[in-house]
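User: Structure please.
Assistant: Input sequence and predicted structure:
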Amino acid sequence: MIYRRSGHSGIQLPAFSLGLWHNFGGVDDFTVARDMVLRAFDNGICHFDLANNYGPPPGSAETNFGRILSGELKSHRDELFISSKAGHDMWEGVYGTGSSRKNIIASCDQSLQRTRLDYFDIFYSHRYDPTTPIEETMQALIDLVRQGKALYVGISKYPKAQQEQAYAILREAHVPCLLSQYRCSLFDQKAKHDNFDCAQSNGSGIICFSPLAQGILSGKYNKGIPEDSRAAKPTGFLQASQVTAERVEAARQLEEIANARHQTLAQMSLAWVLSDPRVTSVIIGTSSVNQLMTNISALDNLDFSEEELKIIDEIVQKPTISF
């Protein structure tokens, strides 16, 4: 495993972190989930990314991860870097969503109970909430650190103006932002242009999610939409309407480049995100141990030639491709 320093901090994180957004909930096979977590740890992935609403049902990914932590990983707590987040819809009622002080602190307390932890290594504001003053949200994060419930804090998906404001508030309180989490892939480069430099100049590490564009960059949709895929489901973050002919054709062209590099399309797509020196870590989501190991193998070839990058840019820099 390769490790990279997070911003101006002393923390190093693995190039790949394991995300528990999908495939670790109460509706999933716990044995498969446990095997993926343990295999990831055995291969140097010490950072596990959670949120209060991961499942389904919401909270169940944290509960399952807590079972694994209290079992096979019980003696390895100090070798792990564990995150959680709050801000999206979690429970019914007026206090079950948003980024108010009440929601942030209550969510953290509940997440600690579900994971059976005394503290999180990092706790995030999962999204910018325009209905809550940013000072209130940041103060809640600051207080979680001062209460010993989190060692570090982070922000996720904040627009640039609010990103700058959050950094300033946290820095003034001497609780700097350790990590800024943004979506980034060959098909979604907005954060690279809008947020990465801001994070770097403020000493924050950058951690990326959805590096495979919800699976389109895995190549699984190159011959149609499989019945068991995310896009085939009526609900979810990837809809069939997003699997357009233009994106599928772009994925096919990218796969030709990947094959010439002796990589799968997924491996090359992961390597491309990591090729940005500003990126601390990339969150991968997996559904099997085999998929996990295949993704980790992307680390075998992270270098791109100028010619490869030029051709890749020509393929993906089209308005109809970007999410």
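The first helix runs from residue 30 to 42.
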